[in-house]
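Form 7-S
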Amino acid sequence: QLQLVESGGGLVQPGGSLRLSCAASGFTLDYYAIGWFRQAPGKEREGVSCISSSGGSTNYADSVKGRFTLSRDNAKNTVYLQMNSLKPEDTAVYYCAAEPEGSCPSVGYDYWGQGTQVTVSS
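Output:
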């Protein structure tokens, strides 16, 4: 069974940091493009960051550039999203998604995780 599982969310004060993990089971992430998305209450889902299957291309939404960093650890079959200098507007459910042999940004992701809640509040 192919599965993505996000973890690492939680409650953090403004200016704080969190590291989200996206762990794959049933398949190897090496050959997959990965995207991170978020959806806040009452808002549409938006792309946050992505990395191509080759690892040669990464992108970030303007709202997170300079604060968020995406990385992948193929040995652990996990992709990370390091989030620094968090703001209340970063509050959302964060999802990771995967597409085989995909680009960044991708035209469509085949697999999605269940999401992890990030709340930035004092």
